[in-house]
Specification:
225 residues; Immunoglobulin-like; eleven-stranded antiparallel sheet; 11 strands
Length: 225
């Protein structure tokens, strides 16, 4: 019996067949190459110390395990590329949408307003939203009075405490309320328009570039309008 016949019988017993496939790199070791090495090893083994069946099967199992992991990695890579493509399509739909995010600054647009929400964990009195400019000067105080727990909406049209109108730009927003005998700082969610989106690499993830305010992580968005 020829060597080729022996090899064919071994392939058949393992449920394998030879098929012409795409060319591969010369430094890649496929399962067919592995089996050729095994046949060569069997042909040239010491007849007084033949290979144990268990060793032979263990080597096949080891190769199959490595091959399976490689295929799994390729599948995960394909899945990752598909998820990135879907994420890009979904992210594109966010452009020109308004989002609410936990920000300290907000943009007062031309002929528009700066709006947001105060997150009030419990009922409180004298809820005040303070607007300050880039120099830290107080521009406007919005007194929302006594409020029950919940999300309290506010809006600033640009009018100042002196009766004038502030120029368009970025302003700092702070909120505080009387809880018991003390004034407590409160978290705010500021409304902002999405200018563009960035698909980050690695662990950066999707980032939204807000008009006049810069980028934030998509995971920080509380609401999308």
């Amino acid at each position: 019996m020829s060597v080729d016949s022996i090899e064919s019988d071994i392939y058949a017993s393992l449920g394998l067949t030879r098929q012409d496939g795409p060319e591969r790199s010369s430094n890649e070791l496929a399962q067919e190459d592995f089996l050729k090495l095994m046949v060569t090893q069997l042909k040239h083994q010491d007849p007084f110390k033949p290979m144990e069946n268990g060793d032979f099967l263990a080597q096949i199992a080891q190769f199959s395990s490595v091959s399976g992991i490689d295929q799994l990695n390729k599948s995960f890579s394909t899945l990752s590329q598909s998820m990135t493509s879907n994420q890009a399509l979904q992210a594109g739909a966010l452009v020109d949408r308004e989002v609410l995010a936990p920000l300290e600054f907000g943009l007062l647009p031309q002929d528009g307003s700066l709006s947001g929400i105060v997150d009030l964990p419990s009922s409180a009195g004298n809820l005040v939203v303070s607007i300050t400019d880039s120099a830290g000067a107080l521009v406007r105080e919005i007194n929302l009075g006594t409020q029950a727990a919940g999300q309290i909406a506010f809006s600033w049209d640009g009018s100042t405490d002196s009766g004038d109108y502030a120029p368009p730009g970025v302003y700092q927003v702070r909120a505080q309320a009387a809880v018991g005998d003390e004034n407590e700082a409160l978290n705010t969610l500021i409304a902002a328009r999405v200018d563009s989106v960035t698909l980050g690499s690695g662990t950066q993830g999707l980032r939204l570039n807000l008009e006049g305010l810069g980028p934030i992580a998509f995971s920080d968005v509380a609401q999308i309008h």
